[in-house]
Amino acid sequence: MKAGSLAMAFTYRLVTFAARNVPHSMKILVLISHVPDTTARIAFTNDNTAYDTSGIQFIVNPYDEWYALVRALELKEAQGGTVTTITVGGAETDPTIRKALAIGADDAVRVDTAPKDGHDVAAQVAAFAKDKAYDLILAGKETIDHNGSQVGPMLAELLDLPFISLAAKLDVADGKATAERDVRGDVEVVECALPLVVSCAKGMAEQRIPNMRGIMAARTKPLQVIPAAATEALTSTVKFELPPPKQAVKMIPAEEAGKLIELLHSEAKVI
Known about the structure:
This protein has a single domain (22-226), classed as HUPs (Rossmann fold, 3-Layer(aba) Sandwich), CATH 3.40.50.620. The chain is 31% helix and 26% strand. It has seven helices and 13 strands. The chain has a nine-stranded mixed beta sheet, sandwiched between helices. Strands 2-5 form a two-stranded antiparallel ribbon. The chain has a two-stranded antiparallel sheet with strand order 3-4. β10 and β11 (186-193) form a beta hairpin. The radius of gyration is 25 Å and the shape is globular.
């Protein structure tokens, strides 16, 4: 072999070796829910079968925004990759999605249908994600309107992926995720190979406020609207009821413990 050919072959081998050692850029999908503001009034309509949304300000579900999305962005900034958000909802959710884009997500997907229940949301997300080869799918531990904690585990089941719930810390390295979860009196450390689904709890990350540059960029970032998959709701709402109003406080003298016990039994019905 000529000297020039040998040098070219050696250079090629060096380039190939370097390419094989380039860190894998992660593809991360973050679930974003459109929920009423925490200060919104609570009222129902349609014979108490639906939440009354008139005059209500909607926001990004805080668990999705503060923990899942921000941690995804931190991982992307440290290791490279992309962060995509996905929301199940109608066009009224677009401002909420744009806020997630303003915080730093690269692009967004909206499944164009009103969510029927937690299983429907999980099924819609699974139908989109099944052939996209995401390394990590993050969601808040629950939404503040339903507090069900259902979508994460059902999504993992539908995609046949491992699931870590209520993670308060998450690190990713060498194709493996290490998560910490608060358990009674201690911290549990869980390790799992990618890909997987994680529900994120308090402690995962610190809230980020969109800056003007992010807000302006969000206007032009891709927001893909896709049709809904054919799914079936497994639950239905029969009726909503507000809790009974608080009663006036009754003061019982310390020496009348028997009367207190009687009231707890007959009125409060807690014993």
